[in-house]
């Protein structure tokens, strides 16, 4: 069945498809959309969530499948459907999926307005970076699809730009649109936009509000991809809405609010501890009202909202208790570590500056066990086992305190929760093994792949040589020899001080240096299998 819209809407949809064919986004994984993480949010609010191992997952606006392909490769008994209007991106994704032999993945060129419930129920529906950038009729279709295709216990993820925070960026979008105009390809228009951004950054009056906004935005966009500037600031459609407006539209389609993909974004205490009681009082006992007030106070510009069927709303328990995290798995950033001791409290921190402190000796030992297990995830059971091996006697009271600490780490953004474990090598072995998908991507020359935590990993020219060989049969010397052979064949070129390295001894030294760099990068970025 095909839905017929007016000529103007059809033309807008066609222009949108053409622009993504002309300037596609780099298609890569979005860890915040991982179904195991979405399911964990549901379980923390005391709702059932389907296991990913046999789940059905739908992505609306899947681009070249960079988000779905790694999931399909690692979960062969689950089913994944991706839909996108860009012919170029779908063809690229289909070719990459064929390399991996993924029979559980279907990437399909199709307008979202034509998607119907005949495709069956999906446990998880993902729509990232689409909702604000399509006409109103397509936005309504996204919510309709979520209602019609979401399984009874399913979770839908939809991201979008939000007001009032995005209104400040709207001034820059208006300015770029007036300067760039509509003539030329999107790539040509982006080039003109960059010229204007440079001019604005250098010449707007710094002492005025107008100048400060333009200078700050221009500076933040200096290193942005052309695709981001083109699709965020130069497309026909970019329609931010308030959170209340979004939820009114979702409610009209029989959907209700579960939460945000990052639970830390729902906590006013993380924004401003002093203002949090006032915000909660203003909102009353209404989570949607609280979220809207936080947007007003923080100037939030972007949301990643999770929806459920309205029939489940009454079962959602907003008072989060430590017992809600039983059976979940927790991951901290690789740079999370003990920082210092201060006034009897152990302080743990990560590179972003976020920190967690405890005076509880047992909780401190549990967090140290979590750090020792990185980059693996850890469940409460696994932490308890480590502590018992080290001589601790863990009773229910201690277990409850550990669970409370893990929950607080999730709520402040220091840890993420998942319904499934993440397992990878904790150290570099003599003959390393990279995950099969990464090896195949590297052999095919793919620039952006995914690590074992569903995060983007970039593969450079030396990684394209080394990674396919990480099947457990090659040691460091063998990898260096292969890299030297690649240099001799002209596949790899080394430079020092701007000069090409040609002497065999120097080539060998460079090869060893770069092999060590690649191995270290893969190990520290969760790419190697234990």
Would you write up a description of this structure?
This protein has 530 residues and is α/β, with parallel strands linked by helices. It is 44% helix and 16% strand. The chain has helices spanning 7-22, 35-44, 68-74, 87-100, 136-149, 167-180, 186-203, 209-220, 226-233, 243-252, 268-271, 276-283, 287-298, 361-373, 380-389, 396-411, 436-443, 461-466, 476-488, 504-524, and strands at residues 56-60, 79-84, 105-109, 122-127, 150-163, 241-242, 255-260, 302-309, 329-332, 337-342, 345-349, 355-358, 415-418, 448-450, 456-458, 495-496, 499-500. Strands 1, 2, 3, 4, 5, 6, 7 and 8 form an 8-stranded mixed sheet that branches. Helix 6 (167-180) crosses helix 7 (186-203), helix 7 (186-203) crosses helix 9 and helix 14 (361-373) crosses helix 15 (380-389). It is globular, with a radius of gyration of 25 Å. The chain starts with 6 loop residues before the first helix and ends in a 6-residue tail after the last helix.
List keywords for this structure.
20 helices; 530 residues; alpha/beta; 8-stranded mixed sheet
Structural class: alpha/beta
Radius of gyration: 25 Å
Most strands sheet: 8 strands, mixed
Number of strands: 17
Average pLDDT over all residues:
92
* Low-confidence spans: none
Helix content: 40-55%
Shape: globular
User: How many alpha or pi helices?
Assistant: 20
- The CA-CA distance between the termini, in Å, is 48 Å
The share of residues in extended strands comes to 15-25%
Oligomer: single chain
């Amino acid at each position: 069945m095909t839905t017929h819209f007016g000529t103007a809407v059809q033309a807008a949809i066609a222009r949108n498809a053409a622009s993504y064919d002309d300037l596609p986004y780099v298609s890569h994984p979005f860890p915040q959309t991982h179904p195991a993480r979405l399911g964990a949010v549901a379980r923390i609010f005391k709702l059932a969530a389907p296991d990913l191992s046999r789940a059905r997952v739908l992505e609306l606006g899947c681009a070249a499948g960079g988000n779905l392909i790694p999931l399909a490769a690692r979960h062969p008994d689950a089913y994944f459907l991706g839909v996108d209007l860009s012919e170029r991106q779908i063809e690229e994704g289909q070719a990459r999926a064929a390399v991996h032999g993924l029979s559980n993945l279907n990437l399909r060129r199709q307008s979202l307005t034509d998607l119907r419930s005949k495709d069956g129920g999906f446990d998880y529906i993902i729509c990232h970076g689409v909702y604000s950038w399509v006409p109103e009729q397509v936005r309504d279709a996204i919510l309709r699809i979520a209602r019609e295709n979401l399984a009874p216990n399913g979770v839908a993820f939809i991201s979008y730009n939000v007001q009032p925070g995005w209104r400040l960026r709207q001034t820059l979008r208006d300015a770029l649109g007036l300067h760039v105009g509509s003539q030329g390809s999107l790539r040509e228009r982006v080039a003109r936009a960059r010229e204007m951004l440079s001019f604005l950054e250098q010449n707007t009056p710094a002492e005025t509000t107008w100048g400060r906004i333009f200078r700050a935005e221009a500076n933040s966009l200096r290193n942005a991809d052309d695709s981001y500037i083109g699709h965020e600031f130069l497309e026909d459609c970019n329609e931010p809405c308030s959170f209340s407006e979004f939820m009114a539209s979702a409610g009209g389609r029989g959907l209700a609010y579960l939460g945000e993909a990052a639970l830390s974004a729902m906590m006013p205490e993380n924004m401003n501890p002093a203002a949090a009681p006032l915000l909660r009082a203003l909102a009353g006992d209404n989570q949607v009202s609280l979220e809207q007030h936080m947007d007003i106070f923080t100037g939030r510009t972007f949301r990643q909202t999770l929806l459920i069927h309205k029939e489940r709303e009454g079962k959602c328990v907003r008072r989060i208790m430590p017992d809600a995290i039983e059976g979940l798995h927790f991951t901290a950033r690789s740079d999370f570590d003990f920082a210092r001791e201060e006034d009897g409290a152990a302080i743990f921190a990560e590179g972003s500056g976020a920190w967690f402190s405890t005076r509880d000796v047992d909780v401190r030992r549990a967090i140290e066990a979590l750090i020792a297990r990185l980059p693996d995830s850890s469940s409460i059971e696994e932490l308890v086992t480590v502590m018992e091996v080290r001589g601790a006697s863990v009773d229910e009271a201690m277990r409850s305190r550990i669970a409370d600490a893990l929950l607080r780490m999730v709520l402040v953004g220091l840890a993420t929760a998942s319904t499934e474990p993440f397992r990878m090598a904790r150290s570099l072995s003599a003959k390393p093994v990279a995950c099969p998908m990464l090896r195949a991507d590297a052999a095919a020359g793919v620039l952006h792949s995914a690590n074992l935590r569903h995060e983007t990993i970039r593969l450079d020219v030396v990684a394209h040589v080394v990674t396919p060989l990480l099947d457990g049969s090659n040691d460091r010397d063998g990898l260096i020899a292969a890299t030297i052979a690649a240099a001799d064949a002209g596949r790899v070129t080394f430079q020092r001080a701007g000069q090409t390295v040609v002497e065999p001894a120097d080539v060998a030294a460079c090869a060893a240096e770069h092999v060590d760099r690649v191995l270290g990068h893969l190990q520290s970025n969760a790419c190697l299998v234990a």
